[in-house]
Amino acid sequence: MFKTRLTELLGVEYPIIGGAMAYLSTAELAAAISNAGGFGLIAGVTCNNKDELREQIRTCRSLTDKPFGVNIALITRDPNRVNEDLEVVVEEKVKFVETAALNPAPYVKQLKEAGITVLHKCATVRHAKSAERVGVDAVTLVGYEAAGHTGLDDLPLSIMIPLAVDSLEIPVISAGGVSDGRAFVSALALGASGVQIGTRLMASHECPASETFKDWLIRTEATDTVYIERSLNRAYRVRRNEATEKVLELEKKGTTMLELLPFIGGDNLRKVLFEGDVEAGVVACGPVAGLIDDVMSVKEIIDRIISQAEIIIERLQFS
Ligand SMILES: Cc1cc2nc3c(=O)[nH]c(=O)nc-3n(C[C@H](O)[C@H](O)[C@H](O)COP(=O)(O)O)c2cc1C
């Protein structure tokens, strides 16, 4: 029932991509998503060097014979890392890459020549159109609903997806706000060829975050997320906590990205995710957290989305 241009492009059963999540989208989580019929992505940005990325790719391959990909953030702190990561994905014969954040133009030719299918993730229809022009195979559009960097257009996916599918030829993937079959069907109804899910997958057994973190996530209300980095012309949707309060205070006074970095990545984020100190740093989180109240296996999450979606579609046909 859910065969789309995306399932065809990726060779997967369901049009569900596990969005790359820094520190969490390891080979194990990516493989679990692919084994459940979705499409797992390894977050390249979390690997400290190209050898770690190579190892992640090999581990993922040892855990699944299903398709998976690597997410390459085109913004990293060391510009050489992008080129090194791309070298590794080509050498390791990874079949799918998702680029994210900046214009993928400088990299698409090299990836396509290596036979790689390229997805590009961006937060505006304008950027999706430029990505299509430079030859990517599909675009993931991040909406206002999503966790993480959602761009400055502040448009919900109910507007962005129809705008994108009306002006693009390539498949469009909707990223943001999916935890169950209702949002999945609604994304498909808007014209998306599939969805990308982040926040819901943090509350999975295979997500490497601590149980304390997962409990905190489950207790999160839909109104508990907040935007930071607005004063720096960026928009980062995160879980409200002590760290975000400090960041917002600094932003009120006027600050720089450099001053905010200690709150945003590295050690403090690791404390939040793995060491039970959920106030220590800033963590991306979508308001869909308000709809999540259980930790399940990735397979249970995906199976439930699909069975709910089947029921919804049947009901729609008869109402
Ligand atoms: C903890 C966390 C970390 C994330 N890190 C990244 C990242 O490093 N790169 C990226 O492209 N997207 C990142 N995202 C965004 C997800 O890949 C995905 O697009 C988004 O979570 C979808 O919205 P949802 O959370 O409402 O499902 C992250 C999301 C979360 C929740």
User: Gyration radius, to the nearest Å?
Assistant: 18 Å
Write down the domain tally. Answer: 2
Low-pLDDT segments? none
| Ligand identities | flavin mononucleotide
- Mean pLDDT equals 96
Helix and strand element order: HEHEHEHEHEHEEHEHEHHEEHHHH
Task: Summarize the structure in words.
With 319 residues, the protein is an alpha/beta fold. The protein has two domains: 5-206 and 297-318, Alpha-Beta Barrel (TIM Barrel); 211-288, no CATH class. It contains 14 helices and eleven strands. The strands form two sheets. Strands 1-9-8-6-5-4-3-2 form an eight-stranded parallel sheet. It has a three-stranded antiparallel sheet with strand order 7-11-10, covered by helices on one side. Helix 8 packs across helix 14 and helix 12 (257-264) packs parallel to helix 13. The protein is globular and about 50 Å long. Bound molecules: flavin mononucleotide.
Question: Key terms for this structure?
Answer:
binds flavin mononucleotide; TIM Barrel; three-stranded antiparallel beta sheet; 15% strand; alpha/beta; 14 helices; 319 residues; eight-stranded parallel beta sheet; 2 domains
Secondary structure topology:
Blueprint lengths: L4 H6 L5 E3 L8 H9 L4 E4 L6 H14 L4 E6 L6 H12 L4 E5 L4 H9 L3 E6 L2 H9 L4 E5 L5 E2 L7 H11 L4 E4 L5 H9 L4 E4 L1 H4 L8 H9 L5 E4 L7 E4 L2 H12 L3 H8 L1 H9 L23 H21 L1
Parallel strand pairs: 1-9, 2-3, 3-4, 4-5, 5-6, 6-8, 8-9
Antiparallel strand pairs: 7-11, 10-11
In short:
The protein has 14 helices and eleven strands.
